[in-house]
Specification:
nine-stranded mixed β-sheet; alpha/beta; about 425 residues
Length: about 425
Amino acid sequence: MKKKLVVALMTAALGMGCMTMTAMAEDTTIRMWTFLDPTNTENGRSVALSQMIDEFEAENEGVKVVVEPQDWNTMTAKFLAATTSGDAPDIIWCARDELCGVLNAGALEPLENLFLGDWSEEEIADVDDAYFKFGEKDGKHYTLTLNKNCIVLYYREDLLKDAGLEVPKTWDDIVACATALTGEDEATGQMRYGLGQSFATESNDPQLLLNYIVDKQGSLFNEDGTANWANDTGVEAVNWTVNCINNGVTPKESVNTSIEDLYTEFAAGKYAMSIGSGVRLSTVRDAATFDGSTIQITTIPGNTIIDGWFAGIWSGSENKEMAGKFLEKMYSPESDQKWVELGGQAPCRKSTVEDLEITDSNRYLETMIQAFEEGWLPSNEMPFVGWKYDLNPAVQKVVTDGADPLAALEECEDNFNMANDR
């Protein structure tokens, strides 16, 4: 009798244990902050992410991945604030400029503790590049780059061809092409500008004047991290930019144009060429009021500025292992193909690059891959917050107030250095 009772109790205990584990699995929710919205069926990257979530949830019964879309400009700072209140997401996509602060705060879990320690040398070699190293601190890796990006020059291939122009390769080429392509658009009757630029100061992608400085002097910063803009090269960059506006190839209202305005206006046919982000190409093509397939991209003279989003696991997460498992899923060879084919992104893995079949519709990938190999980005040894748009006020003041370019640049330098405790 006692034996039967013991067996019954053990069976009940095991059953309760299974029920508890099942209940725990059913209650497992992985929260992720990113600028993508997987419910958006019009955005290729969002569609790719949605498919990865569906696959992961099917592979891991009882696990739910909840994406809480955020404003990309404030997401990383908001994450750091949330870590102190204990309400941070399990997975965060960090902005490159603010990753240093996140690492210094100990807000991310070393990926070696989750899955990276189990990867083979061959698997590591497949992802080992400048982006992989950027998320490294004290011999540990804290992030994977899910969104490699570069700042490029968008151009209308049809317009260049009709005008008998070659794709611009130098700063003089850009001005010559922009000048030739400025005027009334024969198809629409609207005024078309040769070169779209954006100088809003709230948030922005790096504009051409930053690329100009990098091209001429190799970096935007001194070795101690202070801004290196108020010099002859900086004045040349501002004057080149202001001349584009004064000569009419860039509209004067660009001093207040946001980068989102620029993408919308380019898709509407307002510009023949425009500064832009490589990963936004597919979205702009889809939104074009003309034949979107004619939109191509090319690298910017000198060192094209590269960028990216670095995804990691909150060190305070109660679901680190499962969150790490989903991060690994988003970075798998199969997912890399989705990011490329559905999202229009450049590959994150070397093996994906090797397997790429370049066609006329995706030859923009060659430009992006070239940019990643030759491009420039700041170091991860200190924060560089605001540099992408901190020079825009100099253009605004010179154009609207007639300010001296050097004095305007000196003020921009001081503001950047103060904001970054330099």
